[in-house]
Amino acid sequence: xxxxxxxxxxxxxxxLHILGRRADGYHELQxxxxxxxxxxxxxxxxxxxxEIRLHSTLDNVPHESNLIVKAARKLQALGSCPLGADIWxxxxxxxxxxxxxxxxxxxxxxxxxxxxxxxxxxxxxxxTLGLSLGADVPVFVRGHAxxxxxxxxxxxxxxxxxxxxVVLVPQVAVSTAEIFSHPELTRDSLPIKxxxxxxxxxxxxxxxVVEQSYPEVRNSLNLLSKYTEARLTGTGSCVFGAFxxxxxxDKVLALLTETQTGFVAKGSNVSMLHRSLQKLx
Length: 281
Hints:
Elements: E1 4-21, E2 27-47, E3 52-54, H1 67-79, E4 84-90, H2 101-116, H3 123-131, H4 137-142, E5 146-149, E6 154-157, E7 164-168, H5 176-180, H6 207-213, H7 215-224, E8 231-232, E9 239-243, H8 246-256, E10 262-268, H9 272-280
Helix pairs in contact: 1-2, 2-3, 6-7
């Protein structure tokens, strides 16, 4: 039984501005996505019986609720595919961390099974399907750093600098729904009209609310800010700061790991998932 093994990279939101709340309850936003050379890993094998079986369990996530399973089933339906899959997940990225773990896993599932099942669905089809699973899934399907608008699905490819990052992982899961429904969340940022995004626009409008609600996140931001500009990614718990070299990032992480959990990873404008898929062509 041949297995296809692919990475599911993390992402950072280098900035996140919230422009307003839509009638459907979602928020209009502008954000800048960049990938990391760090992530989960998924392996896939074809089943002839049409069953989708995820062999790795996550705490408090029922099998049928997992985005990996949902993505596989939606792709089966889109491609009228009689085949199934066994799927194994090596989980590295924290849940509720704001670095895209579940969304990235879903995108890797769509792209991996599209290849394995030989469905020949286009990237546009997969991105549209991904949006039905979550607002962050399309950028992982596209695989290039992007300036995002709408709810995060209107993507313009960009090429920001690719520094080394220290990412701290406070041991707390932040609820996206809780943050976006918070009465004190900033919802009236003015839209940025210039491309690329001007320097000095790196704030995250969710950060103040997350800091207020989660002291662990505030503590991590305060510690990392002693060495570089520390920012929150997405609505999650992870905080990050950029460094010009791996040596400098490693040095800072070593100073912080007495009290903090974290990792060092390089920023990447082309996701390691897409680089892996290119090698299969």
